[in-house]
Amino acid sequence: MSLSDSYGESFGRRLNARARSFATRALPKSTIAVTELRYDHPEFVLSTPPIEEDAFLLAVHLELFERYEYWEDGKAAPISTLHPGDTIVYDVKRKPTFHLNSAFHSVHFYVPVSALHAIADEAEAPRIDELHYRPAVSHADAFLRHTAEALIPHFAAPSHLNQLFIDHYMLAVGHHVASTYGALAPRSRPKVAGLTSRQERWAKELMSEDLSGKLRLADLARECGLSTSQFSRAFRRTVGESPHQWLIRQRIERAKTLLRESEASLAEIALGCGYCDQSHFTRSFTAWTGISPGRWRRVQ
Known Gene3D superfamilies for this protein (predicted)? Predict the structure, then answer.
């Protein structure tokens, strides 16, 4: 278990806030995580500094924080205002602290330097050790804001998420951070080739054997002899959709077969198609087809 208190439940305990999170280890020897924080009752004290580590936090604030008082390495930054949708960057090793003088709701992306190194190594680019930012100065980052907003509903039911979905989103965040804040500069333009027919067949077979989505991108990539990012790009180029989108499609197609050809209950079909419960199955099927599974069965 990680000793970091900059993501997950330990992050929430440090700030006395409610925290929900998920993480990926799609990159070698590294973790990229996202945590939703809700802090409802201001205590008007200085936040506890995090455990010192070589990592960054990029926080998307979803509510107005009118008077943001911030310190880095004990030095006060100019007082600022965080507006809904704003992104602010923290360097964890510089002991960021702020005054807990306001309720807040935020989504924090945790990106350690080890992840930035892995991304740069794969791109054959110089390693990234620092991100470009100004302490306590927020800015608009449309990608991180939209990603945070897209993830909000999933924090309420993390068991409904498949690991391929988490890996896909967190890997995209890592690459965005490296490019936008770390000036990722590949020495040569990366070649994006598709999967061989054998790699495609094997990857699809592995995912079809376990529709629950517990299989990780890193596992699929290793089976195909590729890095995680290479596999993700190659799969999309070959198949026309990401691995997690393909997995959802297979779930829906299997569900249709069972609805049409069996008398199994919706709860039984949900479990047989990799869903954790019937309600999750119903929401996913309806979102994908525009009709509930019960109604779909009746009109067949």
Answer: Homeodomain-like
Taking residue 129's Cβ as centre, other Cβ atoms within 10 Å add up to 11
Inter-residue contact 148 to 21 (CB < 8 Å): no
166 domain residue, yes or no: yes
Return the bridge partners of 55, or none: 112
What stretch of H or E contains 117? Answer: helix 113-122
Domain membership of residue 297 (yes or no) is no
pLDDT, tens only, 190-248: 566 899 999 999 999 999 998 887 889 999 999 999 988 889 999 999 999 999 999 99
Q: What is the DSSP string of 64-133?
A: -EEEE-EEETTEEPPPEEEPTTEEEEEEGGG--EEB--S-EEEEEEEEEHHHHHHHHHHTT---------
150 and 223 share one domain: no
Arithmetic mean of pLDDT over the chain: 93
Q: How many domains does the chain have?
A: 2
* CB neighbour list of residue 194: distance below 8 Å, 6 or more residues apart: 200, 234, 237, 238
